[in-house]
């Protein structure tokens, strides 16, 4: 991928913004070549390949900000759109906090963002890999009679950021993923599961046999599932669903939510919120991390920020705007248009998930959730779930069609065991962990 | 904006190794949006999506490539990339395609040629902000946004159809946070549709803002939701989310052609109580999910999915319809030129029944009244769904009583629909703000419903007696 082309395009947008009357501006350009193959049964069900360019521009005039996002980077189309963005600033309120960041920098940190092999990998190999995954799920268990498709996808890309103060830098990155959706049949009951994983380097990616076996066991292990009784018990969140809780936690520590009272953590800095096992970090510098980058969407260097330490809330996560507004310093979490995670994770413990289960006399292991009911203002959580009932430290029987619910204040304070299975296969990740007590609603 | 000869040449080029059909989808979308925060216009944004997607279908396989670059070399490269899917299959190369322009009826309202005077958008937001703050002193934050877009599409197919559609879509959303110092509550209301800003002369920003503020203050006083099985009354309008999740997704033809839905192969079977009839309609005036033509160039239609409890039909796109030996129902939709079409819902709703709402409430002993929903999700194979209550109340001994906060309802599609014991006479479409996600693609949809009673369902709160 061509870093200088991306920087040039960003520079052209800045020049157009200046000509249109912007006093300062910042442009980010990404150019990505994407490939996707889907296999189903013995057929290549889908083959997609494209290169796409996009521009995101922020313009400032007289203390007012407006933005443009466009895929039209041709001369006349771009000029017209940039003009419109600059004119648009007239309608926005003067905001003393709006503007470019004070400090931008591109350092030479080795973050392992690019896998050179993915740049030259043949499409035939990629298609074969999707076909192999599809064969593996069907070979893994006789009850897997169908699938909603097995996928290979990758992207080779460059991201450039330039601003009117003379900053201009770019970095390349790659991403590769495998996923599959086996459908299993046992008598009349059809069950599906979906499992996928991603990495920046092909060599770091979980192998097809392992992806297939995880996906298949998620479908077939749940056969015979019953609806559990309604009860209050310890709940263990398996790694992937634990990560979804961390997504909610990220939203609660995002300064953009805190600033508009849409976070249950508003006003809580310095307070003990979680148990002492709750240490949560946002780190933009994890080598090979899917949330890693040398600088954020404003060109601010990324960094490692402890958000919770031993249960105490240390800081929110900021971009330049919300840092100024709330009287803090940016943590390098700008996405350009808002605030996003770098690698946001809960620090792992030392025990395995199996040991956590063994240490739970009665409880529930949650392996999958559906829904997205979190009220961020009050911090209330509820989800549909499936998994296992735990009795005597063992997985007694599968359960489904129940919900789990609680309040985040009580849930974080109730974290009483954290496993060692953390893995950086997304920007927001978590090891499995146990919450001492939640409401399980079933029969 | 696109030359017909070029489109015809691209369709033919895409079929150079053969294939069952090909289409070229050209899109230009312009979106203007404003956001209010802390009582001030916080930002303005303008977006342009411009590009071409080229698809070749051969049997169950689809090759797809897109380009945001309009130079002939880039477009030819995209056609070539899409064509490869048919290379190893037997089939005749297509030499040329003649395109003839087609016209479709219009179900949209408003001027499709551009955005209104920008000050009018800003004034909607400021009016909403004032109205929400004036509603109740417990209101502490108001976030409002308005977006107005025009999506122009040109679709050329290997059968020679050339269709253009120009789709307006405006949305005004107001989110209000209220607090009594101890508890916080939030409320969201949005409306709009395939119409112009003049819509908000009828559905005023004041009314939307007061509604959002009312929900926020109700939620401040709400108690934790109960846990366990109980009766449920689903509110009119937004209750249609139940149909969308519990039934609608399971009737999309990709899942059914592949046999991965629990509704696969069940046409003609009883799948719901005989009180249940469900339509999906692309032809409703101004609705968010309406389409003059879908993203494959097929006119939008009125579809009877379930009638008196019996499953009558699926929602079809071209690829799956062809493999199932039926016609497309105009349900092929895509998020943008970067995505392949999928069979999707348009506006999904239930017509009125005969019960009065008072009677439904009076006959409910212990249950939950879900007046509005914040969203939902379904697992297709087994049919388990959840939906999230936006505004809910306890029902005790025939009376609606205390508000409850943030309950998730969980059920199984056919089981829940079999337990529909009353359908109200108050059917209406929901306010227009729903967006549906499937396979990473997001499209605007509509829902509607009369008040409906379900005999028992699992409510996922925290209060367990």
Question: What order do the helices and strands come in, and which of them pair?
Answer:
The complex is a heterodimer of chains A (443) and B (465).
Chain A (H helix, E strand, L loop, with lengths): L2 H17 L4 E17 L2 E19 L2 E7 L4 H14 L27 H5 L2 H18 L3 E20 L4 E19 L2 E4 L2 E5 L8 H13 L10 E7 L1 H15 L1 H4 L21 E4 L20 E6 L2 E2 L6 H7 L16 E4 L6 H6 L3 E14 L4 E12 L2 E14 H6 L1 E4 L9 E2 L3 E9 L2
Parallel strand pairs in A: 8-13, 12-17
Antiparallel strand pairs in A: 1-2, 1-4, 2-3, 4-5, 5-6, 5-7, 8-18, 9-10, 9-12, 10-11, 13-14, 14-15, 15-18, 16-18
Chain B lengths: L3 H11 L6 E17 L2 E19 L2 E7 L4 H12 L16 E3 L15 H18 L3 E19 L3 E19 L4 E10 L5 H4 L2 H16 L2 E2 L2 E8 L6 H8 L4 H5 L20 E4 L20 E6 L2 E2 L6 H7 L7 E2 L8 E2 L3 E3 L7 H6 L3 E13 L5 E13 L2 E7 L2 E5 H6 L1 E4 L4 E2 L5 E4 L2 E4 L1 E4 L2 E9 L5
Parallel strand pairs in B: 4-6, 8-18, 9-16, 15-24
Antiparallel strand pairs in B: 1-2, 1-5, 2-3, 5-6, 6-7, 9-25, 10-11, 10-15, 11-12, 13-14, 16-17, 17-18, 17-19, 19-25, 20-25, 21-24, 22-23
Q: What's the Cα radius of gyration of chain A?
A: 24 Å
Report how far the terminal alpha carbons of chain A are from each other: 56 Å
Number of helices of chain B: 10
Q: Beta-strand percentage of chain A?
A: 35-45%
Radius of gyration of chain B: 24 Å
Fraction of residues of chain A in helices?
10-25%
Shape of chain B: globular
Strand-pairing-aware structural class of chain B: alpha+beta
Oligomeric status: heterodimer
Measured between the Cα atoms of the first and last residue of chain B, the distance is 65 Å
Structural class of chain A: alpha+beta
């Amino acid at each position: 991928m061509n870093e200088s082309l991306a920087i040039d395009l960003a520079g052209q947008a800045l020049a157009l913004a200046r000509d249109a009357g912007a006093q300062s501006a910042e442009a980010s350009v990404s150019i990505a070549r994407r490939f996707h193959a889907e296999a189903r049964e013995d057929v290549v069900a889908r083959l997609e390949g494209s290169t796409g360019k996009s521009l995101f521009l922020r313009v400032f005039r007289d203390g007012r900000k407006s933005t443009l996002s466009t895929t039209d980077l041709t001369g006349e189309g771009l000029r017209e759109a940039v003009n419109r963005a600059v004119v648009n600033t007239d309608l926005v309120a003067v905001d003393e906090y709006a503007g470019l960041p004070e400090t931008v920098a591109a350092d030479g940190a080795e973050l392992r963002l690019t896998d050179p092999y993915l740049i030259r990998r043949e499409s035939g190999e990629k298609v074969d890999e999707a076909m192999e995954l599809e064969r593996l799920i069907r070979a893994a268990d006789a009850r897997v009679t169908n699938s909603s498709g097995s996928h290979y996808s990758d992207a080779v890309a460059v991201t450039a950021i330039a601003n009117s103060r003379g900053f201009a830098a770019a970095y390349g990155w790659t991403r590769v993923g495998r996923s599959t959706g086996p459908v299993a049949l046992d008598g009349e009951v059809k069950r599906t599961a979906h499992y996928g994983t991603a990495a920046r380097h092909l060599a770091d990616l979980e192998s097809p046999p392992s992806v297939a076996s995880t996906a298949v066991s998620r479908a077939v292990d749940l056969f015979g599932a019953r609806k559990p009784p309604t009860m209050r018990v310890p709940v263990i969140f398996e790694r992937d669903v634990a990560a979804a809780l961390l997504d909610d936690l990220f939203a609660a520590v995002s300064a953009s939510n805190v600033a508009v009272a849409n976070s249950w953590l508003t006003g809580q800095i310095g307070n003990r919120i979680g148990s002492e096992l709750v240490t949560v970090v946002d780190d933009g510098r994890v080598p090979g991390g899917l949330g890693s980058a040398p600088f954020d969407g404003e060109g601010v260097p990324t960094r490692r920020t402890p958000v919770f330490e031993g249960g105490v809330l240390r800081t929110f996560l900021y971009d330049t705007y919300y840092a100024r507004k709330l009287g803090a310093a940016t943590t390098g979490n700008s996405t350009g248009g808002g605030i996003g995670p770098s690698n946001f994770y809960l620090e792992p413990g030392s025990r395995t998930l199996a040991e956590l289960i063994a240490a739970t006399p009665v409880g529930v292991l949650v392996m999958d959730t559906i829904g997205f009911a979190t009220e961020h203002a009050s911090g209330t959580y509820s989800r549909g779930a499936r998994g296992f009932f735990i009795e005597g430290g063992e997985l007694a029987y599968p359960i489904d069609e129940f919900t789990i619910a609680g309040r985040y204040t009580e849930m974080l304070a109730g974290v009483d065991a954290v496993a060692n299975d953390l893995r950086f296969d997304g920007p927001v990740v978590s090891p499995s962990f146990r919450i001492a007590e939640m409401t399980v609603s079933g029969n | 904006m696109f030359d017909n000869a070029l489109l015809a040449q691209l369709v033919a080029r895409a079929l150079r190794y053969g294939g069952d059909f090909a289409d070229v989808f050209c899109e230009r979308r312009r979106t203007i949006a404003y956001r209010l925060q802390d009582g001030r216009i916080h930002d303005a944004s303008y977006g342009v999506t411009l590009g071409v997607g080229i698809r070749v279908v051969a049997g169950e396989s689809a090759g797809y490539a897109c380009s945001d670059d309009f130079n002939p070399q880039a477009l030819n490269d995209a056609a070539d990339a899409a064509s490869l899917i048919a290379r190893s299959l037997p089939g005749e190369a297509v030499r040329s395609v003649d395109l003839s322009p087609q016209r479709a009826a219009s179900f949209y309202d408003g001027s499709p040629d551009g955005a209104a005077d920008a000050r009018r958008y800003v004034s909607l937001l400021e009016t909403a902000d004032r109205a929400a703050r004036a509603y109740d002193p417990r209101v502490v934050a108001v976030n409002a946004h308005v977006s107005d877009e025009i999506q122009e599409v040109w679709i050329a197919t290997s059968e020679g159809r050339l269709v253009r559609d120009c789709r307006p879509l405006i949305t005004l959303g107001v989110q209000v946070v209220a607090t009594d110092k101890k508890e916080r509550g939030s409320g969201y209301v949005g409306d709009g549709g395939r119409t112009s800003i003049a819509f908000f002369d009828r559905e005023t920003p004041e009314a939307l803002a007061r509604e959002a503020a009312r929900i926020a203050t109700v939620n401040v006083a709400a108690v934790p939701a109960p846990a366990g099985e109980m009766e449920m009354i689903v509110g009119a309008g937004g209750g249609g989310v139940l149909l969308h999740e519990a039934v609608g997704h399971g009737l999309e033809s990709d899942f059914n052609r592949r046999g991965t839905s629990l509704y696969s192969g069940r046409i003609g079977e009883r799948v719901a109580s005989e009180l249940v009839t469900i339509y999906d309609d692309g032809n409703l005036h101004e609705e968010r999910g309406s389409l003059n033509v879908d993203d494959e160039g097929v006119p939008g239609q009125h579809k009877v999915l379930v009638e008196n409890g019996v499953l009558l039909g699926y929602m079809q796109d071209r690829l799956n319809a062809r493999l199932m030996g039926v016609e497309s129902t105009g349900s092929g939709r895509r998020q943008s030129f970067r995505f392949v079409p999928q069979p999707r819902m348009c506006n999904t709703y239930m017509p009125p029944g005969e019960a009065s709402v008072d009677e439904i409430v009076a006959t409910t002993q212990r249950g939950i009244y879900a007046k509005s929903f914040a969203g939902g999700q379904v697992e297709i194979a087994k049919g388990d769904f959840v939906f999230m209550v936006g505004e809910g109340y306890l029902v005790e001994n025939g009376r609606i009583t205390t508000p409850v906060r943030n309950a998730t309802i969980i059920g199984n599609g056919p089981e829940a629909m079999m337990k529909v014991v009353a359908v109200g006479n108050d059917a209406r479409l929901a306010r227009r703000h729903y967006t549906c996600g499937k396979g990473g693609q997001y499209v605007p949809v509509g829902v509607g419903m009369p008040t409906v009673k379900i005999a028992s369902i699992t409510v996922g709160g925290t209060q367990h007696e």
